[in-house]
Structures are given as C-alpha cells and as structure tokens.
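Continued from yesterday's entry.
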Amino acid sequence: MSSRNVRATTAGVLFIVATVAPLLTAPLLGSLLDGDGFLSGVAAHQTRLQVAGLLLIVTALSIPAIAIALYPVLRKHAAGMALGSVAFRLIEGVFMALSAVGVLVLVSMSDQLVTGGTTSAAAGSSANLVRDLRDSAGVVSGLAFCTGATLYYVVFYRSRLIPRWLSGWGLVGTGLGFLSELLVLFQVIGALSGPQMALNIPIGIQDPSAIPAACFRSTG
C-alpha cells in the first residue's frame, strides 16, 4: 500500500473514531449532569458514566492523531496553516481529556459523598464546581476544533485537494460550530443541548468524507 493510501486510510479510521465516540457518549451522559443534586444520579449510574469517560478519552487521543495524519498533506500547500491546525487540534485533545477526567472525578465523588441517596450541601457545591470546569473544558475543546478545522479547510479550498464546494461546506460548518460553542460559553444554550447538536450537524456529516478524499488526492 502506498504512503498516500496509508495516510488516507489512517485519516479515515481516525475520523470515524472521533465521530462515533462522541455520538455514543451523548446518550450515555444524557441529563445525568443536569440540575441540582445531580450527584445522586451519578452514583446510581456509575458504570454508564465511566464508559462515557472512556469514550471521551478515546476521542481525545484520536483528535491530535488526525492532525498528525493530515500534516504531511497540508504542509505541501501551506506549512504555516498546517502547523497551526496541528497546534489547535492538540489543544482540542488536551481539553477533551480534561472534560473526560471531569466525568470520572464526578463518579469518584459520588461514590464517596453520596450517602443514603442524598448529597450534602458542601458535596453538592464541590460537584457543581467540577461539572462547571468539565463543561468549560468542553467549550474550549470545541472552539479549538473549529479554529483548527477552519485552517485546514482554507488550505483545501486554495489547493483544491477536495472540490471547492466541499471545502466551502466545511468552512460554513466550522463557523456554525464556533457559534454553537460561543452560545454555550455565554449560556444562551446548554451544553449537548438540541440547538448545539443541530448547529454541529453540517461539520459532523462533512468531515469524515472530506479528509480521506484530500489524502487520496495529495501527491507524493
């Protein structure tokens, strides 16, 4: 298999992993981290949340690997933007990992602090803080993704590694994704809410098909 095919296959597999894992995570988390006194619900569904945390870690590891797989393709056309996309995808992966750690910390806290199905006020405040930090890490991760993805779609548009309409779709998708993260940041909509998921549908559909194609069309 040629190096070009290896890059395309690797990028495709990584994008599938990075797409499917979060889709599986969302229903596992559901509304378990919503509202006051949520730690009792966490205590009752520890295994479910541990699986969600594991899937988030898998996502966090696959994200920078995507950037590394794309770098040999992008640097031939715009080395600076290629390096920038790697940097932002690394930031995305780090904050995604922090979000995963937040979920696992909440599981640990629920095991220690919930007694008799109730949670003390002090324990509830600590849990709320961890949840807020976890949500904030998720927002930063999303903003980093949109920035890094925008950089490589600009390169795709200029180089025609993929059809320009597909690159344009990617730029629109990352713009909508960036908007969704800002709306979550300013608490206009909730994290993993219907509006946020809807705004991320265009980029979610587009990414797994565009990136392997770009690798196949690259030379060398």
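--- second protein ---
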Amino acid sequence: MPGLGAVLAATFFGQIGGNLDNFDTVDRLACVAGLAPVPRDSGRINGNLHRPRRFNRRLLRTCYLAALSSLKNSPRSRAFYERKRAEGKSHKQALIALARRRINVIWAMLCDRTPYTEPAPANIPIAA
C-alpha cells in the first residue's frame, strides 16, 4: 500500500498485536488509533465530537505518517486530501480523514486477504 512501507507496516502490526482478532470492527480499530471521533455531549447539547481521551499514540502516529507519505505516492490519496482541503478542512484535519480512510482499506485488505490495487483516479473536477 502506498505510504505504508516496511517500517511503518511493522510498527502498525506491532501496535495492533499482530492480527485483527483484538478488534470486533474497523470502527473499534479506528477508535483505538484515535482516528474515530467520540461524542462529548452534555445536557441538551449534542454533536460535540472530539478525539477520544484514551488512544494508542504510537498507532495514531504510524497512521498519520503513512497518510502523509501516501500523498506523494498515491494519486487517489492526493485527490481525497485535496477534496477535504476544498471542503475547508485544515491540513491536519484532512490528513486525519485520509488516515481514517486508509484504516478502512487496511482492514478490508487483511480481512479479505487481498493485495492493494490502486483504483483508477476519478476525473471529478474540484470547484474553485
């Protein structure tokens, strides 16, 4: 997978315990990595989504670095990042969204036991 080299892949597997048996769903893996927002509501106020208080910082760093590296190597990742930036998200928010998307892809690859294939880039014009 672009951006996930030998060192980052080894770190990723080391942080998750070597396999996905510890996680019921991809959402749980993302929550452990600190990539899934959790509600922090109070009273009648709802919709406050924040980073979880407890998460694996090394796993988050690994996913973040892999997402950052994939911007150079993967046109599909670059297009997703640019789309998030066009939506008004900051650089950090767009990278975290890309890391979350890549967690979904890694989960599917490991569950289906299939190699990564780069999808053809969609020719969707970005509104300026």
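The chain has five helices and two strands. The mean pLDDT is 86. Will compare against the first tomorrow.
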